[in-house]
What does this fold into?
Amino acid sequence: MKFSEQWLREWVSPQLDTQAVADQITMAGLEVDAVEPVAASFSGVVVAEVLTRESHPNADKLSVCTVDDGSGSSVQVVCGAPNVDVGQKVPFARVGGVLPDDFKIKKAKLRGVESQGMICSASELGLEEDTSAGILELPVEAPVGMDFREYMHLNDMTIEVDLTPNRGDCLSIKGLAREVGVLNRQAVSAPEVLVVPAAINDTFAVDLEAPDQCPRYLGRVITGVNTGAETPLWMVERLRRSGIRSIDPVVDITNYVMLELGQPMHAFDRDNLSGGIVVRMARPGEVLTLLDGQEIALRPETLVIADQTGPLAMAGIMGGELSGVSETTRTIFLEAAFFSPVAIAGQARSYGLHTDASHRFERGVDPELTPLAIERATRLLLEICGGQAGPVVEAKSEAAMPTAKHIKLRGERLEKALSKRLADDDVSDILERLGFGVRESEGNWLVQVPSWRFDVSIEEDLIEEVARIHGYNNLPVRRPAARLSLRPTDEAKLSLGQLRRQMVARGFQEAITYSFVAPELQSAMLPDAVSPVLANPISADMSVMRASLMPGLVRAMEHNLNRQQSRVRLFETGLVFNGELDALSQVPMMGALVCGSRDPEGWSGAKASVDFYDLKGDLESLLTLGGNRDAWRFEPAEHPALHPGQSAQVMFEGKPAGWIGTLHPQVRATLGLKVDAVVFEVRLDHLSQGDVPAFEPLSRFPEVRRDLAFTLPADRPVQTLLDSAKVKAGEYLKDITLFDVYAGKGVAEGYKSIALGLTWQHPSRTLNDEEINQLVESIVAQVQAELGAELRG
It folds into this structure.
C-alpha cells in the first residue's frame, strides 16, 4: 500500500523525520519497500491567473495569453493547450524556472510572438503521465503568486508498505495511523464523521440470501447527484499519491474512503436497478460484463450482488458495467458491506482479476466499519456532488457475524518468550492502545480481540504484539543454550551420498521419477506384483504405487531415446511398495539402467554396445565400497522382466537383495522398445552395510603367482570354481582373478575353459616353490572332487 506522509501526519505526527518513521514502521513488522518524493524536482513555478486569451496570429493551435503571476505586472505567454481560458488559475513557470529533466524556462518567440514563461500541464510538472489532458486547472481560490510546490504541498513523500497477508487492518490511513500512534504513545486524530440525517424517504430493499458469505450489507439512496462535478484537487492529489487515478467524483469518493478507513465501497446507478438488492451465490449460466468491459461467466461458488434482472457486481471484487455510475446518473445507490474473507479469498485470481477491493476483503475488513464508512462517503458526496440522502438500509445476520475472541495472556509465558519481565502496566497499555480490551487478573491478562484484528487468535499472537510494540531491539540478546554434542556415526555404514557419487563418477546421471506408474507398465514387467492403487491419481498412467524402480527407469530411458539420446546411463534411489495397504512394505532401493554404446562417442572409443557385464561391473564397484565384497553373490535366476540366461539374483549374506539382467525381449516388444537395456535393482539398506576399515601392514616380500586353467561344464557358474579354489588356497592367498573364459576347439562340447590367476604373499618371509606347489595340488584336487573340473595341460 502507498500512502502520503502528509496525510498520515494529519492523523498522527511523531517528532521523527521521514526515514525514522519508515524505519519504525518496518521494525513493527510492516516492511517499507520504498520512500519516494510525490513529485519530480522543479522550481520557479507559481500560481497565476489567466487575464486574457487571443488566437495566435500565425498559428491556429496556439493562443496568446496574458497572466497575472503576482509580480505586479501582467506577463505575455504563448500557450498550446486547448483548454486554457480567461479567469483560470494555473501553474505558471516564470522565466528562469527549471522544470523536471532540467528543462529551463527562457524568453522565446513562438511563430513571431514573444513568450515570457510557460503555463504548465500536470505531465510537464511530473505529476502524471497523461500528456493529452491540457493545462492543470487550479481551484479559483488558489492565491495568485504563491509558490506552486507550497500550494500543492509537494514537499511530501510517498511511503510504500509491503504488508503481509495477515495485516489487512493496515491497508488504510486509519490502520497505519493507529500503529504509528501506538509506537510513539501518541493519540490519533481521526476526522470527525457525523451521521448524515435522511432528507428524503427513498429506500431500496436489501435481501441476504447468502448470510454466511455476507453477514452485513448497508445501502443508501442519494438523489440529485451531479456526477459531472469536479473532484477537488486535494482529493485527486491524495489518490494520486496512493497510486490511484482520478476517474469521476463518485468513484473517487469511494476510493478515498477505502484508502482513509479501509472499507471498499461501490455506487450503483439507481435508475438501472430493479426490484431490490439480493446478495446471493451465482446461478448456472449467469454472465456479467464488468466495469472494465470484460465479460465473465460466473461460477456457482462466486458471491454476487444482484437485482431481479440478474447479477450487478461480483461481490467484493468489481462492479458491473450496466449498473455503474455514468455522466447521466442522477440517483445513486451507495453500498458498504462486510464479506467473509473465506468467501472472497481466491475468487478474483480464479477469474484473472485483482482489485483493491478484493485485496482487502480477502484479508479481512472490519465488520463494524460499514456504518462509519457509509456516513463518511455520504458526507463527501453531498459536499462535492450535491444531492439529498435517504435513510440507511441495513441487512444483517447476527448469527453469521464474527464473534469477539477472548484470549488469556499469561505473564509467566510472556516473560519466558521475551526473556524479559515487562511491567504489568506497560503490557496493558500496549494492548489497550492497539484497541484490545484488557482486564488484568493475578499477573495474567484476559484480552478481547478488536473486530479489525483477524490475525489474532491465540496467546502467541498477543506475545508477538507486545514484543513488536515494545521493540525487538529492546529485548535482551541471548545465545541459545543447547547441548551440541556430536552424534555418533557408524563407520561401517555407507551414506547415500557416497553411493550417488560413485555412480556419478562412473558416468551415470541421477533420475527422479514419480512413485506412481501406469498399471499396464507395471503388469508388463512385474505381472505378480501387488501394490496399492491410488483412489485419486494425478492421471490414469500414474495410478498405482511402484513395486520396483525398473518401470520408472524404463520410462525415463524411453523419454531420452525419443529425444535422440541414444546412450543412456541412469540411476535412481527411492522407495518401492509391495502388498496391500494393511500389510504394506516400503523398501528403499537403488536401481540403474544402461543402453546404447559402451563408451561415449569419440575417435578413440569403441562402438560396441553395453552388455550384462558392463552393468555388473558398475554394481560391483558399489559392492566393494563397503569393504565386504565377499558377502555378495550373483546367482543365476529368472525374473519376469529379465532375459533368461542374462539375469541373476543379487544375494547378500545368503539372502536375496536384488536383481540384475537384460530386459526380456517380450517386455521390450510389449513396451515398443527397439534397443537392449540392462538394469539392476538392489536394496539400499544392504548396499550401505560395510566393514570398519582396518590397517594392514604392507609386506616387503615378493608375491608369487600361478595360473591354472580348468575345464568344467558350461552350465556351471564360475563363482563355484572360485569358491572351491579358495577352500584349499591357504591363508596367504592375496588375490584370485578370472582372466579368461574359452569354449571351442580343444575343449569338449558342453564344457568351457576357465583360467584363474592366483597370487600369494607372506607378510614376513618369501614363499618357496615347494609350498606353492603343495597349495596348487590341493586346489586341483579340491575342484576335481567337488566340481568334477579337470586341469588343462
About this structure: The first strand starts at residue 2 and ends at 4. The chain has a mean pLDDT of 92.
